[in-house]
Automatic annotation (TrEMBL):
InterPro entries: Na/Pi_transpt (IPR003841), NaPi_cotrn-rel/YqeW-like (IPR004633), PhoU-like_sf (IPR038078), PhoU_dom (IPR026022)
Pfam families: Na_Pi_cotrans, PhoU
GO MF term list: sodium:phosphate symporter activity
Location within or outside the cell: Cell membrane
SUPFAM superfamilies: PhoU-like (SSF109755)
Lineage start: Bacteria, Fusobacteriati, Fusobacteriota, Fusobacteriia, Fusobacteriales
Keyword Membrane found: yes
Residue stretches making up the PhoU domain: 348-430
Record-given protein name: Phosphate:Na+ symporter
Length: 545
């Protein structure tokens, strides 16, 4: 008995571990393609379903896809209507796992895992390591399934277990419902329909359950898998909760109508498989047929379905949310390659706000605006906003560092953490520049015309410098760009020294007001600090990697 438990639980653990590595490896290999696929999403329901199939095929988990969808909807990156197509597609995409198991190379699981491990350990390039991870995961999936089959084998001759399994054989309506309920419960506990499909195949392969019972279990597993999205939607926005509910409704209704015509459905599956005696092929066919048919039935009515969901979970006027400026959501971490891509988009948006601050500072200086002007007020608002943006980006990026993601993802997350800190510092200094300027105005002191020209010249050089460095983030991070950045930095340092020395000479020769000189020098030094922070971004992007 102990040996049976060890083999079944051990096999399940190895299977889940394999699915995890297979999913991570596939995501890492897909890279930016995942983001491009998601970005091509439109309100076209058919395209939505196709994208759902592609994404789930790449990440090898409908649970990951649906949680990601909930996160996208919660962050405002996806509409409810768009999410419904993806969810229907995810249900089809997850059936790929069953067809992987149909390959029947379980006895080679150790060999595949071994080859994958060697490639992963000794591979030099990140892409090579990811290929090794995929093979390692695939090997463990087959190996885990074989362990489970071996674990279930002795139960075939145990009268107590035979009696237990016979209680939920799907030979009548009551048995079908009971078997489907068991499948739903198993998947809710394990939170992986792929794992429970593996268990079902193991049971059917050893003759502990009949093929017809296996099909009923598979139907129930489609309901159980919806628990993951439901849990992910807790505390999310109204639309995110609607998307999670949609996943449950689609699968519950689908299972209900299939159970109502179950004998007819089972006969169709048998005819499709030419009355095969292989339970793996039969169950994979049933899984795919159910989800494809269900998607075909729901797809034409997506618009009406979205309206129904809005009535089932109505918006409430008193719903309050904290101020949030980015489209980032912790649920996106289920797909780290997409998460890091979205994070980089937000860094780019942060850079645009810093550029806006540069433009506002220029206008304020040129027009001698005071603290009552809209431009000054906007500067303060932008700085407050960027403080929040930095925290939101840093929060998600820190989570990417704390998980077992690829080295490439970890490096990118580390870069982001430092870059947003530099950007926030630049915004602080731009605001300080205005504070120093306003302090002079409060004391009835205005900038000399010639020195204002010098200050604006320095400001323009720094603005252009920031533009250049900010573009490096989304372009080639080459040694050539580093050298160019270093030259620009040196040029600005020389300009700073010239302006400072000119002012000090003026101070000595004309006995300028000391308060004015201190204020002007502080403004110059603030620009010097901005220059250093801009160059630091270049070093993070190029020299530190």
């Amino acid at each position: 008995m102990n040996e049976i438990i060890l083999k079944v639980i051990g096999g399940l653990g190895i299977f889940l571990f394999g699915m995890h590595y297979l999913s991570n490896g596939m995501q890492n290999l897909a890279g930016n393609r995942l983001k491009k696929i998601i970005s091509s999403l439109t309100d076209n329901r058919v395209i939505g379903v196709i994208i759902g199939i592609l994404v789930t095929g790449l990440v090898q988990s409908s649970s990951i896809t649906t949680v990601m969808v909930v996160g996208f909807v919660n962050a405002g990156l996806m509409t409810l209507k768009q999410s419904l197509g993806l969810i229907l597609g995810a249900n089809i995409g997850t059936t790929i796992t069953g067809w992987i198991l149909v390959l029947k190379v379980g006895k080679y699981g150790q060999l595949i895992a071994g080859i994958g491990a060697l490639i992963f350990v000794f591979g030099k390039k990140e892409k090579t390591k990811n290929r090794g991870m995929v093979l390692l995961g695939l090997g463990f999936v087959f190996l885990g399934l074989e362990f489970m089959k071996e674990g279930f084998k002795p139960l075939g001759s145990d009268p107590n277990f035979i009696s237990l399994f016979h209680k939920f054989q799907a030979h009548n309506l009551k048995g079908i419902i009971l078997a489907a309920s068991v499948g739903a419960l198993m998947t809710s506990v394990v939170q992986s329909s792929s794992a429970t499909l593996g268990i079902t195949i193991g049971l059917a392969s050893q003759g502990l359950i009949t093929p017809v019972t296996g099909v009923a279990l598979v139907l129930g597993e489609n309901i159980g898998t919806t628990i993951t999205a439901f849990l992910a939607s807790i505390g999310a926005s109204v639309n995110a909760r609607r998307a999670a509910l949609a996943h449950t409704i689609v699968n519950v209704i689908g299972v209900t109508w299939v159970i109502s015509i179950f004998p007819f459905f089972y006969n169709i599956i048998q005819n499709i498989t030419n009355h095969t005696t292989d339970p793996t092929t039969l169950l994979a066919t049933a899984h795919t047929s159910f989800n494809v048919t269900n998607a075909l039935l729901f797809t034409p009515f997506i618009t009406y379905f979205a309206k129904l969901l809005e009535k089932l979970i109505p918006s409430t006027e008193d719903e309050t949310k904290e101020i949030k400026y980015t489209h980032l959501d912790v649920r996106m971490l289920e797909t780290p390659t997409i998460a890091i891509s979205n994070i980089n988009d937000e860094v780019e948006n942060m850079g645009k706000d810093v550029i806006k601050m540069f433009e506002l500072v220029k206008i304020i200086f040129e027009k001698n605006l005071d603290k009552t002007s809209n431009q000054v007020k906007e500067i303060f608002k932008l700085e407050d906003k960027l403080d929040i943006v930095q925290k939101e980006i840093s929060s998600i990026s820190s989570m990417l560092l704390g998980e077992n993601f690829s080295n490439e993802i970890s490096i990118e997350a580390k870069n982001v953490l430092t870059i947003v800190d530099e950007y926030e510092s630049i915004s602080d200094y731009l605001m300080s520049e205005i504070k120093l300027y306003l302090k002079l105005l409060d004391n009835n002191i205005t900038l000399d015309k010639a020195e204002k020209v010098d200050l604006l010249k320095l400001h323009s050089e720094l603005n252009n410098y920031f533009h250049f460095v900010n573009e490096i983030i989304s372009t080639e991070r080459t040694e050539e760009n580093y050298l160019k950045s270093f030259k620009v930095k040196t040029k600005i340092t020389t300009l700073f020294k010239e302006i400072r020395n000119t002012h000090l000479d003026e101070f000595r020769n004309t006995k300028k007001d000391l308060f004015y000189t201190i204020g002007y020098m502080d403004m110059l030094n603030t620009y010097r600090r901005i220059k250093n922070h801009i160059f630091q971004v270049t070093e993070i992007l190029i020299k530190e990697n």
